[in-house]
Request: fold
Amino acid sequence: MSFELLHAAADSNRWAAILPEVSLGCLALLLLVLEMVLPRAAHRAIPVVAIAGQTVLLALLLASFCCASGACGIGAYLGTETFNGLLLHTRDGQFMRVFFLLTSLLVSVLGVVSLGRRQLPRVEFFSIVLVIGGALMLLAQSNHFVMLFVALETVTVGFYILVSYFRTSALSLEAGLKYLITGALSSGLLLFGIVLLYGVSGNPLLIGSTDNGMHFGELRGFLAANPDNFLASLGIVLVLSGVCFKIGAFPFQIWVPDVYQGAPTPVTAYLAVGSKAAGFAILLILVHTAFAPYAGLVIPVLTVLAALTLVFGNLAALTQHNVKRLIGLSGVSHAGFLLLGVVASLHSTAAIGAVQFYLGGYLLASFAVFGVMTLLARADGADADAIQELDDYAGLAKTQPFLALVLVIGLGSLAGIPPLVGFMGKLFIFISAFQAELYGLLAVAVLGVVVSIYYYFGWVRAALFGEPDGASKTASADRAAAPVAAKAAALVAAEPASQPAPSWSIEFEEDTPLQNKGGSAAGVCVCTPVKWALGLLAAAVVFFGFYQGALGDWLLSR
Amino acid sequence: MLDTLFTVFATFALLFALGAVLSPNAINAALCFLLCLVSVAGIFVLLEAYLLAVLLVLVYAGAVVALFLFIIMLLDLKQVSAWKFRGISALAGVVGAGLLVAGVLAVATRGQLDSLPAAMIPALGADLKAYAHALFTTYLLPVQVMGFLLLAAMLGVIVLSKKFIAQGEAPAASPALDSQPATQAAQK
Reply:
């Protein structure tokens, strides 16, 4: 192989175009190196390095976004293919990049809280979170099945580990095993679909055959030339099934409740937001580029899936008492709303913006809720993180008014209550569905909203009006003498001069002295900034509900 | 000649795959899996994908299955109680098998492709040099990402299996209470 040929092929490997991803990878390595180099006493600083690094990256990414929308930095690659067509840098990709970076940043913040209360290895958690974040960002820009599959597998392997990270908890290990098996099945389906598409598009006897059938553009050309190929249809359906596992759409949602419950709360948040958004990013890319000529097949499949997902997610969430299962199954219904948006986007591409806006709102509201859950989760017992019941939230408004407010704002936004961002997201999706004349699906979705208000407000009712004392009778924990909300309140309020800490705190200290040694030390330094961050999230939920401004224009104009 | 060989290899692959799934003895199952892989490697040779065949035997048969056998012998698993189908799982099995047969039939009838004239078959997968070239130019980025995948997997092994007693600021007494069952299991 001559030098020139090598040079030409390597020429399109523009590492500058994926600088944020490369930096995330380097940051992940840096954390591991720091753990080796720094003395034990300084290990507490490593998560701070992770969070600070991601914050700086996020700021730089946003800055390179805003500056003159092009000329400098990453903007210069917009609309071009790099890495021999493996990546295509689009506007949607840029949005998803910021989205995933913000997600991994927030997961790291929650991870500090959650791991601070347990005796578990810390640095590896942040390192894996960063690797997943980088892979998610690459996934959102992939333009080639090889890139897509490799990035998706990196994400999935990272999640296998994170889900079973609380390995002393049997529920966490069970969740890890279930996620491993269903994840392997979904990867298998996806891979089988890809192979069928690659094989059939490489058949020289068919018109428009290509020897690069993994590339979305080439595949689209082939599919356009062969509009009714059976093997290609089969491949498309299999690929869609594999993606639907990630987003938790109806027949493929089977893993959601158990895995969401067993996984550590920050990881549940990562799964609910990051993994789901990744599924939708891939879905949007696929149906708008590679599978566009087969819209006649894709639209009915996705329509049926959306309707079933909406119905199932909302009905299944009605009966849940464990908050993590509840939020997992309500996440299934959110996947239904998003699928509705994807179907609408196949009729007019403006709906892509609506889907992205919905995802953004879902990110803010979900992390507000998950943040409160993480702060309130107990750490006294191996399974405590997985057993968070609705009753545990009884009387939260009295013990922790600020967290209760954040929780109510987050849940209200998830339910779609008018002044909040979740309402605007649903409204945009409904408008685009209406314009696409999807009246049947729209009716199902509106009914879904009504049902979802019921179960979200069951939670809100527990937090606002429940009596702290009544909960202790039903709390299933082994040594929970007092309601958990109050206990955790003491944990959160362990810092000086925040709330007038009630007598709970003393009782708590007597109750679980072991835990308090490890827990409150971290709690003191960590809880205030995290509460500030949660307050910011809640403020953003309210703010973007009232005023979409430049972001709304940018998303919805196309 | 080629067709006969293909039939032979394909039959062996199917039979050994069935054996791997159905065998109640874990060691037998692993060995059946090994033979299934060798048969598939034979099919790759018939397709002139020599490199794939060699890699399959080296990586899977050589390393992965050997590892399986080590672990099975280490854990001293003798007889796994046979899986009993009853009630809903039998029904699900029948439905699944029916769907599978329907799918295979559909592909065999509707998705059939004409066989290519020999000259048109692209000679892919025979050449180590072509693979290496593609890996270091076209697919450089996925190879790098793969490196991070393996890193994450390695971290996972450490996190999920290592005893965490020497975790710095941890008070020595409390973690032992929670982690004892896990560490004991690991020590076995």
